[in-house]
Structure formats: structure tokens, C-alpha cells
Design goal:
3 domains; PAS domain-containing protein; Beta-Lactamase; 11 helices; 26% helix; elongated; 375 residues
Length: 375
């Protein structure tokens, strides 16, 4: 494909927009700068080396809704990460050469765990020969719902639920999943967050189950919140009973969505306390590395366990011979209810034969083996 001389000059201008060394020059603070949150569109005037954009608002507390803004390209992009600036520059260059470019993801976060939003770009030639590249957020080339870039809430949610097993899921007002907690992925049997993040919840019913999809879409349609308790059919075909709060919200005129937060129907029961109240010695083992994850008070006393031993050595180097461990694991996999006679090597040097009931707790990462001593 032949590129017109004007387009070649435009590509060169775009490449020089950030300076020869790739660094943005120092700018005065009063100059406007593009934010991704609330961005509706922007276009790059190649000849003038400027960017004009419109923001409907941002999720940051100190943001100002400025409407239509204009600034030199290097100044307009100064608040973005180096990776986002490079992606936008590639987008502009691609549109100049080929007529359109994208989608390129921007705003995904440094660790790429927060989903970005794809940008599309199209070349437009004015009557006087000047080239304009128009860019806007797009949910896909065939989508009729471009939407806004909605960032900011995901890192906050991630911080609050990092050490929680609660099911938390954020869906934007276009129905696209923007955040899912570890508890949500585990409860709904989703092995990898990438399977649902950035996708329309209506299109991933096989992953999250039709109950949740119906609940979220109804909340978005009615613009109403809901609370309740019930069974959620998940993608694996099983059902999980949860108490949930489904909260419809709107931050600005253009950004809102639904926050789904749920916990086990049993409520805030302290299962660790119940675990320790059991008089039978019980230990929980990670089947992937054979490390003891937990032991109740009865097991710690009977087997003379210490936190240091549990953290440093697998159970096959402390309490059980590898052959005995294999027998128990096989019994658990066969869902046998018959306790297995097993020699336990307590850490005080004594060895005793006990009847051990072995049970597997399913987990996507590694099943957990529960070993309970029977009298």
C-alpha cells in the first residue's frame, strides 16, 4: 500500500510528539492533561501536534469536569504511564498509515491484573489536507456500545477484599465485568480471572451461571438494588448458596454499574473456632506440596506439632510415611468412608497406629486433604 507524502510527514510528526529522547518535556501544572477515567473521545491534530479531548468526569475525588480540553500532545499525555503513552502513539501512527488502528488496551495497570479499555482510531482528512486521527473507547469493533473508560474502583476494591473470601464483582453500566475478587473466582469455579474480566456478563453465562447474570442485568435495567439469600447456579453446573447485596450505583452522569457482594449463607461463622473445638485430632494438607496448612488444638497436642515444623516440612517428612500418605490420598479420591489404619510418627519420637478418615476438599488450585483421627 502506498502512503501519501502528507501521511508520511504526519507519521513523522506523531513520532516526534514526545521529543527525541522519548521523554515528555516539563509542563506547567495549569495545562490540562488527559485522564482515562470518564474519557469519551479524543482526536489528534497531526499538523498542529495537539490533542483535543472530552471527559465526562473522573472517579478521583479531586477531579474537575472540564468538558472539551486541548493541549500540546506531549503535555496532554503527561499523566499517563509510559506504556499507555506508547500505545496511544502506536494507535495514532497506525491510523495515519492504514486508515484505522486498534483496538489497543490502555489503563490496564502496571501489573496487568486490572483490565484496561481498548481504544480504536480512525484517520480523517480535512479539506485543506490536514490529517485528524479520531480515537474513542470501544468494546469491540462490532459493538454498538462504545462506552466510557471506567477505571479507579478496581484497585480500591482489590485493596479491601485482598484478604477476604467474600465474593465481590463489579460490572459497569454497559454490563462489562471490571473486577472480580479471589473469593468470587473460587466460589463460582472460575480458574482464571482473564476468562471474565473485560467481557460482557451476558456473554459469559457459562462461566458465572445464569442466576448471577439475570440478577445483574435486572439490576442494571431497573436501576435498583437488591438483597437476598438463595442458590446461585454456577458455570460448573453446581449450586452455591449465598447471601448477597446487589448494589446499583451511579458516580456521574456517564459512569455507574452494579457491585455484587456476597458471602456464604452460613453468615460470619468463625469456622476456625469450630475447627479447634473438635476433640478429634484434625490436620489439613495441601495435596500439591504436601504441606500442613492447618491443625486443630487436638492435633497439635497429640502430634507435638509446632508452627515452624508445619511451615518448613511436608507431612511426609514428619507425621506420615510417603506410602501411608499415598494410601490416605487414594482413599479420599475414592470417597471411602472407611477409616484407614495408619502409623502416625509424633514429633516427640513416639509412633502410634490410628484410624484416619481422609476427605478431599475440592479447590481449583490444589485440593485440600483433611485427615481426621478416629477413636
Amino acid at each position: 500500500m502506498n502512503v501519501q507524502p502528507a501521511q508520511l510527514r504526519a507519521v513523522k510528526n506523531a513520532e516526534n510528539a514526545e521529543g527525541q529522547d522519548g521523554q515528555t518535556p516539563e509542563v506547567q501544572e495549569e495545562s490540562p492533561a488527559l485522564n482515562l477515567a470518564g474519557l469519551q473521545f479524543f482526536f489528534a491534530d497531526i499538523n498542529r501536534k495537539t490533542i483535543v479531548w472530552n471527559e465526562s468526569g473522573s472517579q478521583s475525588f479531586d477531579s474537575e469536569i472540564r468538558g472539551l480540553c486541548e493541549a500540546p500532545s506531549s503535555e496532554a499525555l503527561r499523566l499517563l504511564t509510559q506504556e499507555d503513552r506508547k500505545n496511544i502513539l502506536r494507535l495514532i501512527q497506525g491510523a495515519i498509515r492504514d486508515g484505522k488502528a486498534g483496538p489497543f488496551d490502555v489503563g490496564g495497570g502496571a501489573d496487568h491484573r486490572i483490565p484496561g479499555i481498548p481504544l480504536m482510531a480512525y484517520r480523517y482528512e480535512l479539506q485543506d489536507g490536514r490529517l485528524i486521527v479520531v480515537c474513542f473507547p470501544s468494546l469491540g469493533e462490532d459493538s454498538g456500545n462504545p462506552g466510557n473508560i471506567a477505571l479507579g474502583l478496581a484497585p480500591i476494591l482489590q485493596h479491601f477484599v485482598a484478604n477476604s473470601n467474600r465474593c465481590v464483582c463489579l460490572v459497569d453500566n454497559f454490563g462489562y465485568v471490571r473486577f472480580a475478587s479471589e473469593g468470587f473466582l473460587s466460589s463460582f469455579g472460575i480458574p482464571d480471572a482473564k476468562l471474565i474480566l473485560g467481557r460482557n456478563i451476558a456473554h459469559i453465562q457459562k462461566r458465572v451461571g445464569r442466576t448471577l447474570v439475570s440478577l445483574i442485568l435486572e439490576s442494571l435495567t431497573r436501576r435498583a438494588s437488591a438483597t437476598g439469600r438463595g442458590k446461585f447456579l454456577v458455570g460448573t453446573g453446581a449450586a452455591v448458596e449465598l447471601t448477597h447485596n446487589t448494589m446499583y450505583f451511579r458516580i456521574s452522569g456517564s459512569f455507574g454499574g452494579v457491585l455484587f457482594s456476597a458471602g456464604q449463607a452460613s453468615g460470619d461463622v468463625d469456622f476456625a473456632k469450630i475447627f479447634n473445638l473438635c476433640s478429634a485430632p484434625m490436620v489439613v494438607v495441601n495435596t500439591k506440596n504436601r504441606m500442613i496448612l492447618a491443625a486443630n488444638k487436638a492435633a497439635i497436642k497429640a502430634y507435638q506439632l509446632t508452627p515452624e515444623i508445619m511451615d518448613e516440612k511436608p507431612i511426609t517428612e514428619t507425621l506420615l510415611h510417603p506410602k501411608s500418605y499415598g494410601t490416605l490420598l487414594q482413599a479420599a479420591e475414592q470417597e471411602s468412608d472407611v477409616p484407614q489404619p495408619t502409623v502416625i510418627n509424633a514429633l516427640n519420637g513416639q509412633s502410634k497406629k490410628k484410624r484416619i478418615k481422609a476427605t478431599l476438599l475440592p479447590d481449583d488450585r490444589a485440593p485440600k486433604l483433611v485427615l481426621e483421627a478416629r477413636s
